[in-house]
Design brief:
- By secondary structure, the protein is α+β, with helices and mostly antiparallel strands.
- The chain has helices at about 5-20, 35-45, 50-65, 65-70, 75-80, 90-105, 110-115, 120-135, 140-150, 160-170, 180-190, 210-215, 325-340; strands spanning about 230-240, 245-250, 260, 265, 280-290, 295-305, 310-315.
- The protein has two domains: about 5-220, Endonuclease III, domain 1; about 230-340, Nucleoside Triphosphate Pyrophosphohydrolase (Alpha-Beta Complex).
- Strands 1, 2, 3, 4, 5, 6 and 7 form a seven-stranded mixed sheet that branches.
- The termini are far apart.
Length: about 350
């Protein structure tokens, strides 16, 4: 029976020699991990890559080195620093969670306690409990699912196989060094047991992998066909008022919630008029991909005279492209030349 007594020693030995160096991670055998850094990195890494997160994490730590500092931060500044990472509900929950933890004085040390905090679901709670507090929790992300699917040659397509993969992963989780084991599984999936062309020849688990023995490692995990994404359309208005541009803060709930944006309509279920009466000129279209739909947004621009009924003038020298979410950056890139006319 393949279990943690077989897999864990092999993988931990490999991890001790080949662990990735990441800014939120302590090396094997190093000091105790900082729960704040573990939590912050896990929230940032949700549905995002390590490469995309690294610089954001370093900036956040420079601005807010402790959970107390983050709890006291200005909401708009945090949303601005988050801009570009996507899934903006994470940033709102990040602040809410930091404030709960700051009031309590520390993070809970158990998966159950962590899961009661804003923005922390079962996976994130297990990851923090294992990595920060060395609790024997099973941590299953996409990398781990792939490793387990290959180790046990699970051919049932995803996502239906997820519960089975998690149960199998639980049989591998050791009581000793569970935090290092969780990170070792992630590293194995990220560096060797990769989605395409896995490097089986240098894998520490080469002799224990059923999929490799059957010659199907590169084909796993299998996935059910995804339904085609619908396409939505909408309009974004970029209004100039002298040396200022009209912007608004999107509602906290919903798409791009809490972010700085140009007034828009249609694509998010709203049905709103232009922000002001003006001679609007169509500049073109931008395209953007969300998780559940594709978007084609028509960009309109015009000088604004008089008081707008939507949006607030922001001096152009105060508008940082980096403060905008990805969609609105595309809008601004198309419209910025109008400000210089």
């Amino acid at each position: 029976m393949r279990d943690e007594q077989v897999i864990a020693p092999l993988l931990l030995d490999w991890y001790d020699r080949h662990a990735r160096v990441l800014p939120w991670r302590v090396p094997p055998g190093g000091a105790a991990p900082d729960p704040y850094r573990v939590w912050l990195s896990e929230i940032m890494l949700q549905q995002t890559t390590v490469a995309a997160v690294r610089e954001y994490f370093l900036r956040f730590i420079a601005f807010w080195p402790t959970v107390q500092a983050l709890a006291a931060a200005d909401d708009a500044q945090v949303m601005g620093e988050w801009a570009g990472l996507g899934y903006y509900a994470r940033a709102r929950n990040l602040l809410a969670c930091a404030r709960v933890v700051a009031r309590a004085g520390s993070f809970p040390k158990t998966r159950a306690g962590l899961q009661e905090l804003p923005g922390i679901g079962p996976y994130t709670a297990a990851a923090i409990a294992a990595i920060a507090y060395d609790q024997p929790e099973t941590v299953v992300d996409g990398n781990v699912e792939r490793v387990v699917a290959r180790l046990f040659a699970v051919t049932q397509p995803m996502p239906a196989s997820k519960p089975h993969l998690r149960n199998l992963a639980a049989t591998l989780t050791p009581q000793t060094r569970p935090g290092d084991f969780a990170q070792a599984m992630m590293d194995l999936g990220a560096t060797i047991c990769t989605p395409r062309s896995p490097a089986c020849g240098i894998c520490p688990l080469i002799d224990d992998c059923d999929a490799r023995a059957q010659g199907i490692a590169a084909d796993l995990p299998r996935r059910a066909p995804k339904p085609e994404k619908p396409t939505r359309t909408g309009i974004a208005w970029v209004g100039f008022d002298g040396a200022a541009v009209l912007v608004e803060r999107r509602p906290d709930k919903g798409l791009l919630g809490g972010t700085l944006a140009f007034p828009s309509t249609g694509w998010d279920g709203s049905d709103l008029p232009p922000p002001a009466a003006a001679d609007w000129r169509q500049l073109g279209e931008v395209r953007h991909v969300f998780t559940h739909f594709n978007l084609i947004l028509t960009v309109m621009a015009a000088p604004i005279a008089g008081q707008p009924h939507r949006g607030n003038p922001l001096p152009l020298h105060d508008l940082r492209r980096s403060d905008l979410p990805g969609l609105m950056r595309k809008v601004w890139d198309m419209a910025r030349d109008e400000a210089e006319r």
